[in-house]
Amino acid sequence: MSEGLQQKRVVVIGAGWAGLGATYHLAKQGYDVTLLEAGPYPGGLVAGWQTAAGKSVEAGIHGFWYPYKNIFSLINELNINPFTTWTRSSQYSPVGLEVESPIFQHLPRLPSPLGTFLYTQFKRLPLVDRLSALPLLYAVVDFDNSDAAWRRYDFVTARELFKDFNVSARLYREAFEPMLLVGLFAPGEQCSAAATLGMLYYFILAHQPDFDVVWCRGTVGEKIFRPWVEHIEKAGAKVLAKYRVTDLIIDSNNRAKGVVCGDQVFDADAVIFAVGITGIQKIVSTSASLQSREEFRNLNNLGAIDVLATRLWFDRKIDILRPSNACFGFDATTGWTFFDLNVLHDEYKYESGTVIEADFYHANQFLSLNDAEIVPLVQRYLATCIPAFRDAKVIDSSVIRLPNAVTHFAPGSYRYMLPAKTSFANVFMSGDWIVNRHGSWSQEKAYVTGLEAANLAVSYFREGTPVEILPVEEDEAHIQVARSLNQTVRNLGKSILPEFWLP
Ligand SMILES: Cc1cc2nc3c(=O)[nH]c(=O)nc-3n(C[C@H](O)[C@H](O)[C@H](O)COP(=O)(O)OP(=O)(O)OC[C@H]3O[C@@H](n4cnc5c(N)ncnc54)[C@H](O)[C@@H]3O)c2cc1C
User: Fold this and answer.
1) What is the pLDDT of residues 196-210, one digit of tens each?
2) Which of 103, 143, 310, 434 is 20 to 30 Å apart from 237, CA to CA?
3) Entry pTM
4) Start and end of every Amine oxidase domain (predicted)?
């Protein structure tokens, strides 16, 4: 570590996956890093804590999918063992069990997306409906996650996309829209078609094992963030909770030189934002320096989605087919999931009753209900899927409301989302809503954008080594061929036809 390096101060704002990722790498490179977090604990949307009665709760259960290579690599580096083995999942509607998914990596590997279609066990959806997804493969090939592809598809809603490709109404209602409600947290008419194609490709379609998932054997806060923050502090970074950033101080060269938290100022040679959409909007609303930039003012055109996380303790053991379950058809615009924590979490393995986490996405209409209204509603929904819940008694419960919590990939929002580099040379953006080209989503994307922001700081100061970011597994050979053919035809079209049609 050189003298010069120690003097470079980086302030990171927000301690979720993105902020912790950036802080850890820069601290390891010898920078003087201060991480400011508004909440009482690090973790962001994934933070977990204990109730007054000492029971673990968290802001929704989080899965870690097969392609989360960078997070899995971090787990190896930290030498911790937080995860379950690969788990199977089911899907329910008010009619009952609809779908069972196998562990795809245990089955003979077929060219994508054949394995996904053939190995997923649909209990009711007729073959003819499933086959109606085939024409959509053109859009999957055409959407290559480039800037041009985002601009072509982002103005279209997911519902229009599926309609234009003649996906059957039943397949849309019973397969695609449920995936959108749990993957992008919104119904099809409110999702960008670009985000839809990107998300479906990453989690389901690109390679057969991609939909395989593991869960933490406790809260992510306890199993991952606690040991990780210990490593981060050992590497020399300061992690300060309950520090809400309100402004940046910009010098005459248009560089940030300080970060304001109420009446305190943290001197900075570079700043990394790692807050969600609602967080950055609040900062912009109190920051004259950010309001002076169009790119930051435009962030007010973005939106976020309400989520509700509940945990119910029942007085008896109830048999549940699979530990993780997604549900659709209960409310028109809300998706929900439930998890058997006796199977997933070490803490509840030997509990005499059943412990269930039930999370609701796009839960707008539920947030104003009080706990005494929400708990019986959750029990009723659970009993619709698994009748044994009807007679069980709820002996304890936790209800966590998360208004405007998760990124809304609304149609037309791409043009307002920011890339990692801003118009301030030493201010970088990160988080799961940032524009990047890695191809990952959710926690993995948040972590990767944190690493990318750290690398931008390293290259800005020209000191230290960039962290290696593992790319998403490349497209299978037949997809590569289809994409390159499609690109050739597209370029040919461009060279002979005028730009006449809307993208
Ligand atoms: C219920 C639920 C279920 C989910 N399920 C999954 C899943 O199964 N798998 C998956 O991969 N992802 C899932 N996600 C998404 C995942 O949680 C996010 O993609 C990821 O956590 C985003 O991380 P981040 O670092 O970008 O932002 P965040 O986690 O939002 O962190 C931002 C941090 O910034 C802080 N902050 C905000 N304003 C300020 C300020 N002014 N000053 C200082 N700090 C500030 C916030 O307090 C917060 O800690 C789920 C989300 C929810 C809510």
Assistant:
1) 999 999 999 999 999
2) 434
3) 0.97
4) 18-455
